[in-house]
Known about the structure:
This protein is an alpha/beta fold. It has helices spanning 14-25, 49-55, 93-104, 123-129, 134-144, 158-174, 188-199, 317-320, 322-328, 366-380, 386-397, and strands at 4-10, 30-33, 45-46, 74-75, 81-82, 179-180, 203-205, 212-216, 219-225, 228-237, 246-259, 272-276, 287-293, 304-311, 333-344, 353-355. β8 and β9 form a beta hairpin. The protein starts with a strand and ends with a helix. This is Rab GDP dissociation inhibitor. InterPro entries: FAD/NAD-bd_sf, GDP_dissociation_inhibitor, RabGDI.
Amino acid sequence: xxxxxxxxxxxxxxxxxxxxxxxxxxxxxxxxxxxxxxxxxxxxxxxxxxxxxxxxxxxxxxxxxxxxxxxxxxxxxxxxxxxxxxxxxxxxxxxxxxxxxxxxxxxxxxxxxxxxxxxxxxxxxxxxxxxxxxxxxxxxxxxxxxxxxxxxxxxxxxxxxxxxxxxxxxxxxxxxxxxxxxxxxxxxxxxxxxxxxxxxxxxxxxxxxxxxxxxxxxxxxxxxxxxxxxxxxxxxxxxxxxxxxxxxxxxxxxxxxxxxxxxxxxxxxxxxxxxxxxxxxxxxxxxxxxxxxxxxxxxxxxxxxxxxxxxxxxxxxxxxxxxxxxxxxxxxxxxxxxxxxxxxxxxxxxxxxxxxxxxxxxxxxxxxxxxxxxxxxxxxxxxxxxxxxxxxxxxxxxxx
Length: 400
């Protein structure tokens, strides 16, 4: 291990694995280590079910009614990928007119503006133009545009329209849902990017204790593990590896619920996302529900996993999520966790230590993607260009 690397990555959460893959494709020499013996870090998929009971310190073992333990792959932090429910709203005449406008909108073509200035007109005024009611506004802003607060209402409308356009185009691609979800759980994603890194020469070491991050003259120069030192020019890591360089800005409560039935009023869907807008439950933060099932190879046949999450606002977090839990009744088993929202105090400009943000309460990857792009820009000084990444891959494999 006594070698020099361009980049050392600590932790195998999705953020770290994606950045590891990106840096390897960019031609960097990458060493990726994790103290855990499995991929995924805080965003791991736990299997078998017995391990989930142990992780949450529940007494006994899963009842026989839950099927075979190895049939379960339970995500600790579930998130959908942008790619059912509430479609009745799309039948409203005014909302349909609004969606047609969004579909035709092109910020480079003033003929599609219809009197709206995308750089000046607020989204609140756009909603007024189409005479949309409060319920539709809540649905549009929080379930389609995926905003977590209503601050966007008084901002120029261009970004919001493009967010809704992304949702609509993603929905059109597959017909039923704008989201994708990997079979066998999200734990497959970090492993996929780990394999990408390995293809481009990255080295992976699991179950590797990290003794020290070595900093000299304020700048990282390497990592010490089991008495050996690997040198590096840059370091990427999750907050757990650098507790002196992060701060707590809040907490997230997550409740994993095992069900023997689909969620009511979802047309017996085998997966769905429910977003309860904050102002409908007198809160500052939305409440999220993500439901998946045996159709995704994450649960025993006939079983469903629903995960409720939100940002903690009071000293009684479990009371805060009651509106969501009531939608899921009856619940066969619950697993409750409260985790700190940690963000870096060191942006890495001087130290060259680049720290990811803890995963928030949202059930989609939009905020995680923003974090990845932000870290990439701080590391390289340039914006992330997905098309350039595809070109580099194609140069090696000759693919379309």
